[in-house]
Amino acid sequence: MTALTLSTAAAPGLRADAIVIGVAKGAEGPVVAPGAEAVDKAYDGRLAGVLETLGASGAEGEVTKLPAPSGFKAPVVVAVGLGAEPEKDAGFDAEALRRAAGVAARALTGSKKAAFALPLAEAADAGAVGEGVLLGAYSFDAYKSTGKDAKAKNGKAPLAEAALLGGKPRDKAYKAAIERAAAVSEELNRARDLINTPPNDLNPEAFAAVAQAAAKEHGIKVQVLDEKALTKGGYGGILGVGAGSAAGPRLVKLSYTSSKATKSLAFVGKGITYDSGGISLKPAGHNETMKCDMAGAAAVFAAVVAAARLGLEVNVTGWLALAENMPSGSATRPGDVLRMYSGKTVEVLNTDAEGRLVLADALWAASQEKPDAIIDVATLTGAMMLALGNRTYGIMANDDAFRAAVHEASEEVGEPAWPMPLPEHLRKGMDSATADIANMGERMGGGLVAGLFLREFVGEGIAWAHLDIAGPAFNEGGPFGYTPKGGTGTAVRTLVRIAELASSGDLG
Ligand code: BES
Ligand code: MN
Ligand code: ZN
Q1: Which of 62, 63, 129, 156 has the lowest CB atom count within 10 Å?
Q2: Is the CB of 448 under 6 A from ligand 1?
Q3: Is residue 178 part of a domain?
Q4: Residue 389 located in a structural domain
Q5: For ligand 1, what atom is nearest to the CA of residue 450?
């Protein structure tokens, strides 16, 4: 991954392939953002005018490359749009910095070293720029040929090194901000790798092995329940979903504990390594991206490892509910009844509503330890994509204050989300003639129906939030800001933020 450093060097003397500066959209045209004073001076204070002539406006996502002024060691200046200029005395918001840094990092693919002269008013800004760079520089080329077929490879390597100018390398807060950005971004990029890995290479067993290795590296306790253990324990939901696949299901439990913890959190992730729909098979056109159906488990995994790397003072348990949803002679049929880990029986009316079945078992398992709060993350319903589009995830909860806290955390870290209700009247649609509940209900409000189903498997009195990330988990469009094509890693930073709040005693 891109190496990140804080630098006190002056822009002109810096040896790099490019100097990145910020341009904001002012009332009368582009405005050179703070941090780029030395660059502007070298253009005789005419940089804003030059940029305007080149067609720059300062709009978000805009990139303008121009030759560096004479006397500069770096050959190129990359001016990146920051969006609207903030009010006087207000700084740029963290998300504007993250996005601009991400756009610039992407524009610099193939470069060895770039210096970022973006506005850093405080330590947190360095963290935001660092995160933007590391997340924006990400690319997944593990499956592109190298060697004599090198032309087939994406082309160029990600930006190798980024120096943040104006950062204070000796200041504790700046150092901590950069270290946090690196830990969170590295783990988030690892989640992206898992999501992007084709399902023939990432089945439940392989995912569990990755989790085991990472847990060992970071002093996290790990327990993997295989088919035999799941059968013995009575995990009918996970087993039922995995029954059709040649690759058996797993339940992975990752426990990060801190001796200073006063709170405990459980994160539960949907980990369907491939969702064909099962016997209720998805039609062509609906299954090509279903390797992403483990994005919730990937987010949970990354967040637990990040919490460990940051040494947070909170206990965090991650539950990865891993299965492959396939049709076969041994697959669960529509009409089958499963006895879940909680003891409840579920009539499976549609084998494509599998996520709620694996989550139900994992939620009940998590509840047995009586954590202070549970958050599950899942690419659960197409209905949530219809409701909120593909950049915003939905938050449902059994507790208004907790839902608000999760929403606030999501806004803070730049992961758009929106609160959704759990209307009681939708529960009766899941009444089953045969079992305690059916795994399907009314079509209208399908995302909320799924949330109501999950609620039944959360232990009494435990605050719980459900994040339906079906929309933003996988970006089928082009890259934007610091978000690449493919797996996005959404929800990782929300979970880390919640763990930080619990660590500092600021989570209700
Ligand atoms: N994994 C899908 C949901 C999904 C769809 C995620 C598109 C990402 C992109 C989930 O398992 C599913 O198939 N849900 C069904 C539920 C229905 C059968 C009640 C759906 O949303 O159609
Ligand atoms: Mn499905
Ligand atoms: Zn699914």
Answers
A1: 156
A2: no
A3: no
A4: yes
A5: 19
Has residue 177 been placed in a domain? no
Q: What value, to the nearest 5°, has the Cα angle with vertex 136 and ends 146 and 130? A: 125
Q: Is residue 29 part of a domain?
A: yes
pLDDT digits (tens, 9 = 90+) for 316-328: 999 999 999 999 9
What 3-state DSSP class applies to 140?
A: coil
Q: Is the pLDDT of residue 155 over 80?
A: no
Please tell me the distance from the alpha carbon of residue 270 to that of residue 256, in angstroms, as a whole number: 19
Six token digits for residue 311: 């040494």
Dump pLDDT digits (tens) for 125-153: 999 999 999 999 999 999 998 755 554 44
Is residue 388 located within the same domain as residue 249? yes
- Is residue 383 in contact with ligand 1, taking CB distance under 6 Å? yes
350 and 450 in one domain?
A: yes
Best mutation site among 279, 352, 440 for ligand 1 pocket (most ligand atoms within 8 Å of CB): 352
Atom of ligand 1 nearest to the CA of 473: 8
pLDDT (tens digit per residue) in 433-454: 999 999 999 999 999 999 999 9
Nearest to 22, CA basis, from 12, 30, 14, 32: 32
What's the CA gap between 307 and 114, in Å, rounded? Answer: 29
Phi and psi for 91 in degrees, rounded to 5? -90, 180
Residues 457, 342: contact at Cβ < 8 Å? yes
Regarding the beta carbon of 472 and ligand 1, being less than 6 Å apart is answered no
**Are 26 and 104 found together in one domain?**
yes
User: Beta partners for 251?
Assistant: 225, 321
Q: Which residue's CA is the nearest one to ligand 1's atom 22?
A: 382
Domain CATH for 264: 3.40.630.10
**380 CA distance to ligand 3 centroid (A)?**
6
- Could you tell me if 126 and 19 lie in one domain? yes
Indicate whether 150 and 116 sit together in one domain. yes
Domain containing 340: what range? Answer: 189-504
